[in-house]
Amino acid sequence: MNICYRVDLSETERATLQAMLSGGKQAARTLKRAQILLAADRGVADEDIATSVVVGSSTVYRTKRRFVEGNLERALSEEPRPGAARKLSGPEEALLVATACAKPPASRARWTLELLVGEMVRLTHHESLSRETVRRRLCENALKPWRQKMWCVPKIDGEYVARMEDVLDLYAEGPDPMRPVVCNDNFSVRVASTTMTGFFVRA
């Protein structure tokens, strides 16, 4: 059975919400929650609030519940959501970075999101990837190959990927005094192992 939550704002809370709506500098979702609380405080029915604010009835219910069970800050804040697993694994993200830093395909001046999506599908087991997934991973690594020149990786092939994974495994293992690692912006190398030049790994 659903519980009916009654919103009864104090003068301070009401003034805070009205100031937020007047300023308009908050996130759209936060402003909608402020509208919900003010309307609920006036006694407007949940269905009417949902229609006027253009949200689902469940959003109205959750916002009121979080206010009554918590406080104004909790009602306005973003409710934690169960996040989906990242589409690209660590090695796959590193491969994306290396690909974006490599020379673009023949007859193309630079990499585009569409080209990178297609190349990642070709190089990995993924049957498909979204442009947004690729864009976000590139942004996290401060890469925009379609806007500016990048230093290049000579060639992305099976041998390169194998060496890259070797370096990533080395980073994952942690420090080992018996196997020192030399690293700078231009190369990472396992002593007494094959050097892989032109690849940068974020520690």
Describe the protein's topology:
Layout: H1 11-23, H2 28-41, H3 46-53, H4 57-69, H5 72-76, H6 90-101, H7 113-123, H8 131-140, H9 158-173, E1 181-183, E2 187-190, E3 196-197
Antiparallel strand pairs: 1-2, 2-3
Helix pairs in contact: 1-2, 2-3, 2-4, 3-4, 6-9
Quickly list its features.
single chain; 203 residues; mainly alpha; 2 domains; 3-stranded antiparallel β-sheet; 3 strands; Transposase; Transpos_IS630-like
Number of DSSP strand runs: 3
**Biggest β-sheet: strands ordered side by side in the sheet:** 1-2-3
What integer is the average pLDDT? Answer: 76
Q: Stretches where pLDDT falls below 50 for ≥5 residues?
A: 184-203
SS element count, helices:
9
- Number of individual domains: 2
Main beta sheet strand tally, sense and closure: 3 strands, antiparallel
Question: How much helical structure, as a percent, in the residues?
Answer: 40-55%
Helix-strand sequence: HHHHHHHHHEEE
Protein name: Transposase
InterPro entries: Homeodomain-like_sf, Transpos_IS630-like
Pfam family, one: HTH_32
Organism: Microvirga lotononidis
Short description:
It comes from Microvirga lotononidis. With 203 residues, the chain is mostly helical.
What does this structure look like?
This protein is mostly helical and 203 residues long. The protein has 2 domains: 11-76; 90-203, no CATH class. Helix content is 50%, strand content 4%. It has helices at 11-23, 28-41, 46-53, 57-69, 72-76, 90-101, 113-123, 131-140, 158-173, and strands at residues 181-183, 187-190, 196-197. The chain has a 3-stranded antiparallel β-sheet. A hairpin with a 5-residue loop joins β2 (187-190) and β3 (196-197). α1 packs antiparallel against α2 (28-41), α2 crosses α4 and α6 (90-101) packs across α9. The chain starts with 10 loop residues before the first helix and ends in a 6-residue tail after the last strand. 20% of the residues are buried. The model is unreliable at 184-203 (pLDDT under 50).
